[in-house]
Design brief:
743 residues; alpha/beta; Rossmann fold; Immunoglobulin-like; 6-stranded mixed beta sheet; 26 strands; 17% strand; binds alpha-D-glucopyranose
């Protein structure tokens, strides 16, 4: 058996290497035939001018330019037929080099999945990989080769609208999710069926924009960059990411697009990345606006030297790279290297062998209404919902949720009860049949209760105006019901790119509506939909139950109903801290202790005199139906040695009456270091299923690899000493044991 396995492995690796050698030879022979202009064209990406996702650069007759081999790839073109038409034009060019078609498929294509931040709240890596795989299946069936995803920017600032696109504030969780999404998109590897190129973005530290203001400057130590913001990119690279995208922001005074430390020293040097890097939308030309390039020629020069291979939308490369090479300012080899990287991807995708392999209308139709995809979307959407509060009612001493499916009068009130496209959130596709396909909350609840419960409805108010004339009807409807379920939130377009907010409340008069409904004295369940953490303290205070429903996509209503009625026991855990006010931002769980931590001294402590020191809801927090109790962690040794594995065990008991998924989280604290260390660092987690009355022992293994950090000399090291090992259901609900880890 072993001999067979050995032969098999050798054959596979031989074939793989052979294929790479073959591609390399074919690329070299093609480059040898190319003119300077044809080479620059391969690095030139333009958007469909009629569906831009940024400020358009006038392009002229792009169809003729494709025929003349003047464009290497396109963005925002979808459809098997449409991409076939453009690919046919490319086949009329002198060298017949196929186009790549790219698209921001951030959380689903035809089937919209929950926002990436919502999916992160599921902590279900396998489900997130399946979500990305389905997006790739649907998008590739519609001609797309290149997904501008996953976005892996760590962010600690909910004012930044793009937190919706990432995995939250934690580097460890964000790294695991980055890898899962890359694997989902690329599947069995480029060139295999329905495999699409991932594009890890935005390299780097875009999520640390000052003030949470999109596109703003980023300034941090290289130590912080390497410890907090780079690991998800490295995890994505290790998962095989085919491409990277750099970012709009300047980092320590150098725009990422022209930043050689990022792209040459770290990405291609230390990490030995062989794939290609694309700029962000016009970010090459924007180096002029940054004040880093004097004109577009200078911008092209600085970008190619720094390692940006493909120019998205600024036209700088197409116009000026040939000039720079002819003037001897850019070695032709540098241009060839960049061209080699994009041609290699086109070969790996199989596009030279069959430029139309993703242009099958039959395949597109087959994937267009895939019921299994909708079921998967519903599944992860339910897992993404976070139950923040679930008080017991005074008369029954039973928790408000789950609701009974029969015998109740339920008032569904609020501007999002019958919303459809709002549920898709930012970076999603609006299809003509959305009014039928997207399941509203009203439809989801109706389908769940059928005619066994009486549903009442009132809109109450709009999402974002001062009109309170609907309040009276809402109160009237509420008074007829046994319980009120209110659905409120941001507008769909309030989070996403260029959507930073300085105030994170519910817009319009929604807060007032909640207050009026609370005053009725009826049990009140408040559900909030948004693309980021909002300031929800008042909503929590006014209600007996508070449910965070993010933007959940096509199956939103069904997923919410699954949680409301207990078909899915809520299992979401917050991937980002929820602050009490905007004034607390940035607020994150893995902060340093400082010399005067809040609460140590009644007077002298870091914090605010007008606010408690803690967040409203902590990273990793979320409730479920039924109570879970944790034992104190037990360790295999209180004095492990450097080469030992420390085993950590905890017992988890559950008293609920429906199966529950529990995310058991393990944090460490390095008590003393050559640089100060965070008070907590997530290092492991396990998702377990608990049946009613079940008790399980959960085991973790830690080694010194888990203790490493970047010291002041930027060495990635661990240091002996005391470590707190903490285990629990949330970052602020842990039990601890201390070990002394020696050399
Ligand atoms: C946008 C975004 C980037 C996206 C690109 C193409 O400005 O920053 O994430 O992939 O342009 O739409």
């Amino acid at each position: 058996m072993r001999l067979f396995a050995f032969i098999f492995f050798c054959t596979i690796s031989f074939y793989g290497n052979t294929q790479q050698v073959s591609i390399s030879r074919r690329v070299d022979s093609l480059i040898a035939k190319m003119t300077l202009d044809e080479k620059a064209a391969q690095l030139h990406q333009i958007s469909n001018p009629f569906s831009a996702t940024g400020p358009i650069t006038p392009v002229g007759d792009y169809l003729q330019q494709i025929k003349e081999g003047k464009i290497g790839s396109m963005l925002n073109i979808v459809g098997a037929e449409r991409t076939r038409q453009l690919q046919e034009l490319a086949m009329q060019s002198r060298l017949k080099i196929p186009l790549l078609f790219a698209q921001d498929v951030i959380h689903g294509f035809r089937t919209t999945f929950p926002l990436p931040l919502a999916e992160a709240a599921s902590w279900d890596l396998a489900a997130m990989e399946r979500s990305a795989r389905i997006a790739a299946i649907e998008a590739s069936a519609s001609g797309i080769h290149w997904m501008f995803a996953p976005m892996v920017d760590i962010s600690r600032d909910p004012r930044w609208g793009r937190v919706m696109e990432g995995a939250g504030e934690d580097t460890y969780l964000g790294s695991l999710i980055a890898a899962a999404r890359v694997k989902g998109f690329q599947g069995a590897g480029l060139g295999t069926p329905a495999s699409v190129m991932a594009c890890v973005k935005h390299f780097a530290a875009y999520g640390a924009a000052v003030g949470g203001r999109d596109y703003n400057s980023v300034d941090m130590s290289e130590r912080q960059l390497r410890e907090t913001y780079l690991p998800p990119f490295k995890a994505a690279l290790d998962a095989g990411a085919a491409t990277f995208m750099n970012s709009f922001n300047d980092l320590n005074g150098v725009p990422a697009t022209g930043n050689a430390l990022l792209q040459r020293t770290i990405l291609r040097g230390e990490w030995a990345y062989k794939g290609l890097v694309i700029s962000d939308w016009s970010s090459i030309a924007e180096m002029i606006t940054h004040g880093y390039a004097s004109d577009t020629l200078d911008a092209a020069h600085k970008a190619i030297l720094a390692g940006s291979d493909v120019d998205m939308e600024s036209h700088a490369y197409y116009r000026y790279l040939p000039v720079l090479v002819r003037e001897g300012k850019v070695p032709e080899k540098l241009l060839d290297d960049a061209v080699r990287r994009i041609l290699t991807k086109k070969f790996e995708m199989g596009l030279f062998d069959n430029p139309f392999k993703y242009c099958s209308v039959a395949e597109e139709n087959k994937q267009w209404n895939n019921k299994a995809h909708l079921a998967e979307a519903r599944n992860i959407a339910a897992k993404s919902i976070v139950l923040l509060k679930n008080d017991s009612l005074p008369d029954t001493q039973k928790a408000v949720l789950p609701l009974k499916v029969s015998g109740q009068k339920i008032a569904l009130i609020g501007p999002l009860v019958k919303a459809k496209s709002e549920n898709l959130g930012f970076w999603s596709f609006d299809w003509p049949d959305d009014s039928i396909r997207i399941v509203s909350l009203w439809e989801g609840v109706k389908a769940a209760v059928k005619d066994t419960a009486q549903l009442l409805y009132a809109k109450g108010c709009n999402l974002n105006d001062a009109d309170t004339t609907g309040f009276a009807e809402a109160v009237h409807v509420a008074m007829q019901a046994d319980i009120i379920v209110l659905s409120a939130g941001e507008l769909r377009g309030m989070s996403g790119e260029a959507k930073s907010r300085s105030v994170l409340n519910l817009p319009g008069v929604q807060e007032q509506l909640i207050k009026r409904l609370a005053a009725t004295g009826k049990p009140l369940v408040v559900m909030i939909s948004a693309g980021r953490p909002l300031i929800v303290g008042n909503n929590a205070a006014q209600s007996q139950a508070l449910v965070y429903t993010w933007w959940l996509g096509t199956e939103a209503g069904n997923a919410i109903a699954d949680v409301l009625f207990g078909k899915h026991n809520p299992s979401g855990r917050l991937p980002m801290t929820f602050p009490r006010t905007e004034g607390q931002i940035p607020l994150y769980y893995n902060h340093y202790n400082t010399g005067r931590p809040a609460g140590n001294d009644p007077y002298y402590g870091t914090g605010y005199i007008d606010l408690p020191k803690s967040p409203l809801y902590a990273f990793g927090y979320g409730l479920g139906y039924g109570a879970v109790t944790y034992s104190k962690p037990v360790v295999s040794s209180v004095a492990p040695k450097g080469n030992e594995t420390l085993e950590v065990k905890v017992s988890v008991a559950y008293d609920g009456n429906s199966p529950r998924t529990e995310t058991v989280q393990l944090y460490i604290r390095d008590k003393t270091g050559s640089v100060v260390r965070p008070v907590k660092e997530l290092k492991k987690f396990q998702q377990i299923t608990l049946l009613p009355g079940e008790q399980k022992v959960v085991g973790f293994k830690l080694t010194t690899e888990d203790l490493k950090f970047y010291n002041n000399d930027l060495q990635y090291v661990w240091e002996p000493g005391a470590f707190d090992i903490m285990v629990g259901p949330a970052s602020d609900k842990v039990q601890m044991v201390t070990v002394n880890w020696g050399r």
